Inverse folding.
């Protein structure tokens, strides 16, 4: 029975029906919590009573939610209310590709390329997760009013068995997967192997993609007969008419792409949607650069490795999930062939806003930085303009380098510099004088310069005027909305703004994650929002600093509440601004440990500000928790293009490569980061880890010993000992220093401090001292858990402490509890570490076979264990005589 307006499904309120299909009815609904409209797909009553159909609906919805990509219809939530199963999705306004093709005319060539490129990007993301659509067609591609492309029914597509009575007739099938003899798809877009009822993989989607692109370019279907049977025969036997017969302006390169997609044999067909997106991007950029000359042919690519679907049952059988290693190889090959970013962004001007020089007292540096950041933020995301991120630009503070050098290092055409002086007017008012200058990097020739003199309370107007004049000097066309954004003031309360800037100074725009800095930042942000309750940026920063503090220090309920309430406040003030969505995403990832829930928020933030490196980095960090390592690398590469000297981004690139055991690639990223920040403890530690994965303990210790003299030895020792439990990597002198440290070296966390010392004493086989420190750790972790009982890492640390105390049953219970709270399937970043701790607890309590049961799968996933490390890590000494362990390290 259709749902009536006003009906509640969980917290959602039904507003109106949107449509219906074989796998469900779709309604527009309202999400009262976040104040947004959503679409809700309800499983039909006939299928809801079928346990198999219900299970498939739920499994596929979860898979699609984890997949989340800008070119795929997003799923926010899965629910069941009063026997009604439903999926909550983003609501779309626009029309399908079929609507755009309904008059039988081709689309403009550039528009066809643009749409197909976005389809290919969505397919690439799905295929990397092992998900095959199998019913790709113009009806399942949606174009929103703002020209965004969304693939529909992805993973929730109907399982259809085509009849011979008509081209579009379909009926549900009971098949659980693509078993031989089962025919799935829509006639006209089915690959030959689908027509024959053979097993299919991602290359069936590529065939359908080729048929869609053919239709976009010609207005005609690639395969069309009088009956469905005739169309199926044409797919198996015939080649579609040459594109040039219907549209002589189609270049050879584009025709080659279509032909390559429509090859009858999957082996001869294009093998990668990622490559197709790349080729179409190249064609589009070449065409945009020269509309007078025809687009040259795209050179053929070498064959990519094949994509082999899993042979296992369940989700793998239903969705065609591939072997992760094969996808990773494909992605590496594609990435290695990716050219410099310039061709993909032809016609876009690149600008670096360097730190405005404070000509007054040093204590006013924070305010001059605030002016710089505000101007940079206003210019970011203007059409036709790319602005280098804060981290890279700030590296040129008071630089003596020539503009030509800076331009080359940052790959920019223009530089915006400036000077700031604070003074008092004759009437005693505080004034600010700002002298910005826009120049060509290649020649240092000035393009625009203008001094501003205003009262300090008018500094916001000055920032907006500078950004507007720069945009005009660069011939950037500004819409009415963009003009309003440039003129917008973050707050009208100057003391609130000054407190906010003090918070920015303390947190270094979230680059600092040490608890003392974060606590100072939180205090300043709290002062800012107390002075101006409508200060959106301050609320968002308060939330993010609180989330980081919760994750990097002792977690408290108060800290969690502060992080959530501040994020919700930012979203209430500006639901269409990216800052609140990023803050809520960070809360879900760092506090709730629910990265699947964080993903749509972070994707929304990035969509709202695609030119910001910070949002790309936040999204990449979240993807790592979801196990989307290749996608994370892609986001980080985009962030690096926008912020090429960002240490945070370089660390992220190295970290992802390290998890994938690409040690050489990771080491290069860490070395580049250390060249910019030689005292960064995380980079020093991660570089040492690259050697550990290779089984080179001497190399790891040498990397730590190579730290510059400016690095405080106690800080380095405490960091290495506590970050991932690498006490054993420290040499004798460093371990002697470690046992002399007090809890203050560990941010006064007595649990972490005592557990590190217990591990150091265990290496010395000093059992009385091991028990002494393990008891201190146990008491501290139990106290922490009283405040945060669902914190998985605290349970793991308590379990390890109990294991050192010989309390076997309790130790195993706590370590297993940690895995229950945060398994690898839920968090691919922290989950493996928790399983590793469970392995250590099993070893310490004499359960060696159980330890091996949990250790073996850890070597098959992206994590910091390898055969090389197992050979040198003394924590595994108790397993060395086991034949199973010998096989692992062999």
């Amino acid at each position: 029975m259709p749902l009536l307006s006003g009906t509640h499904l969980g917290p959602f309120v039904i507003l109106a029906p949107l449509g219906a299909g074989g796998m469900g009815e779709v309604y527009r609904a309202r999400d009262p919590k976040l104040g947004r409209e959503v679409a809700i797909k309800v499983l039909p009553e006939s299928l809801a009573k079928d346990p198999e159909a219900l299970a498939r609906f739920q499994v596929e919805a979860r898979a699609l939610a984890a997949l989340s990509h800008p070119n795929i219809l997003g799923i926010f939530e899965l629910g069941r209310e009063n026997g009604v199963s439903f999926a909550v999705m983003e609501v779309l306004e626009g029309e399908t590709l079929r609507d755009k093709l309904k008059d039988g005319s081709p689309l403009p060539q550039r528009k066809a390329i643009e749409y197909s490129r976005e389809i290919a990007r969505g397919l690439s993301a799905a295929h990397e997760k092992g998900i095959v659509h199998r019913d790709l067609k113009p009806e399942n591609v949606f174009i929103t009013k703002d020209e965004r492309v969304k693939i529909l029914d992805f993973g929730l597509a109907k399982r259809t068995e085509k009849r011979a009575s008509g081209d579009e007739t379909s009926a549900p099938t009971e098949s659980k997967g693509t078993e031989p003899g089962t025919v799935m798809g829509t006639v006209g877009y089915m690959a030959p192997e689908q027509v024959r009822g053979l097993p299919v993989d991602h290359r069936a989607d590529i065939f359908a993609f080729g048929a869609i692109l053919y239709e976009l370019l010609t207005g005609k279907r690639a395969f069309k007969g009088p009956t469905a049977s005739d169309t199926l025969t044409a797919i198996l036997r015939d080649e579609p008419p040459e594109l040039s017969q219907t549209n002589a302006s189609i270049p050879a390169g584009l025709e080659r792409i279509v032909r390559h997609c429509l090859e009858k044999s999957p082996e001869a067909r294009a093998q990668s949607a990622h490559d197709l997106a790349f080729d179409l991007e190249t064609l589009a950029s070449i065409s945009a650069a020269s509309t007078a000359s025809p687009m040259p042919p795209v050179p053929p690519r070498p064959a990519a490795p094949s994509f082999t679907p899993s042979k296992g049952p369940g989700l793998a059988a239903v969705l065609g999930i591939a072997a992760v290693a094969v996808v990773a190889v494909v992605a590496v090959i594609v990435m290695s062939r990716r050219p410099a970013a310039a061709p993909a962004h032809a016609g876009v001007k690149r600008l670096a806003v360097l730190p405005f020089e404070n000509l007054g007292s040093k204590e006013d540096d924070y305010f001059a930085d605030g002016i710089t950041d505000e101007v940079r933020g206003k210019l970011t995301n203007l059409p036709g303009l790319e602005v280098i991120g804060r981290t890279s630009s700030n590296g040129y503070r008071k630089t003596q380098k020539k503009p030509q050098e800076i331009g080359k290092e940052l790959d920019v055409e223009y530089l915006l510099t400036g000077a700031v002086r604070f003074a008092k007017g004759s009437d005693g008012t505080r004034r600010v004088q700002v002298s910005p200058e826009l120049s060509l990097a290649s020649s240092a020739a000035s393009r625009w310069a203008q001094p501003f003199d205003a009262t300090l309370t008018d500094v916001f107007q000055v920032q907006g005027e500078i950004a507007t004049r720069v945009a005009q000097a660069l011939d950037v066309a500004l819409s009415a909305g963009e003009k309003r954004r440039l003129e917008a003031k973050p707050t009208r309360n100057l003391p609130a703004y000054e407190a906010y800037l003090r918070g920015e100074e303390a947190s270094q725009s979230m680059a600092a994650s040490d608890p003392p800095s974060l606590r100072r930042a939180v205090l300043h942000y709290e002062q800012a929002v107390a002075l101006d309750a409508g200060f959106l940026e301050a609320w968002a920063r308060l939330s993010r600093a609180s989330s980081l503090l919760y994750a990097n220090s002792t977690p408290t309920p108060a800290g969690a509440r502060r992080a959530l309430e501040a994020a919700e406040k930012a979203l209430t003030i500006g639901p269409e601004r990216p800052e609140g969505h990023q803050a809520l995403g960070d809360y879900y990832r760092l506090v709730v440990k629910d990265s699947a829930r964080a993903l749509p928020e972070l994707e929304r933030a990035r969509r709202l500000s695609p030119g910001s490196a910070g949002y790309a980095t936040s999204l990449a960090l979240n993807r790592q928790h979801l196990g989307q390592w290749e996608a994370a690398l892609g986001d980080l590469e985009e962030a690096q293009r926008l912020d090429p000297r960002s240490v945070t981004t370089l660390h992220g690139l190295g970290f992802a490569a390290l998890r994938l055991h690409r040690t050489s690639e990771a080491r290069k990223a860490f070395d580049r980061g250390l060249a910019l920040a030689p005292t960064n403890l995380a980079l020093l530690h991660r570089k040492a880890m690259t050697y550990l994965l290779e089984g080179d303990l001497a190399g790891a210790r040498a990397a730590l010993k190579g730290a510059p003299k400016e690095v405080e030895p106690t800080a380095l020792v405490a960091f290495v000992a506590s970050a991932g439990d690498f006490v054993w990597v420290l040499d004798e002198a460093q371990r002697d220093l470690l046992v002399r440290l007090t809890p203050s070296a560990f941010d006064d966390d007595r649990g972490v401090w005592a557990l590190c010392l217990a591990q150091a004493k265990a290496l010395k086989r000093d059992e009385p001292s091991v028990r002494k420190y393990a008891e201190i750790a146990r008491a501290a972790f139990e106290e922490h858990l009283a405040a945060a009982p669902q914190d998985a890492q605290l349970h793991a640390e308590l379990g390890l402490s109990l294991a050192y105390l010989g309390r076997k049953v309790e130790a195993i219970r706590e370590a297993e509890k940690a895995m229950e709270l945060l398994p690898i399937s839920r968090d691919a970043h922290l989950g493996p570490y928790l399983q590793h701790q469970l392995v250590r607890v099993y070893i310490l309590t004499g359960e060696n076979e159980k330890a091996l049961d949990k250790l073996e799968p850890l070597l098959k996933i992206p994590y910091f264990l390898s055969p090389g490390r197992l050979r040198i890590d003394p924590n595994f000494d108790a397993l060395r005589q086991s034949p199973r362990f010998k096989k692992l390290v062999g």
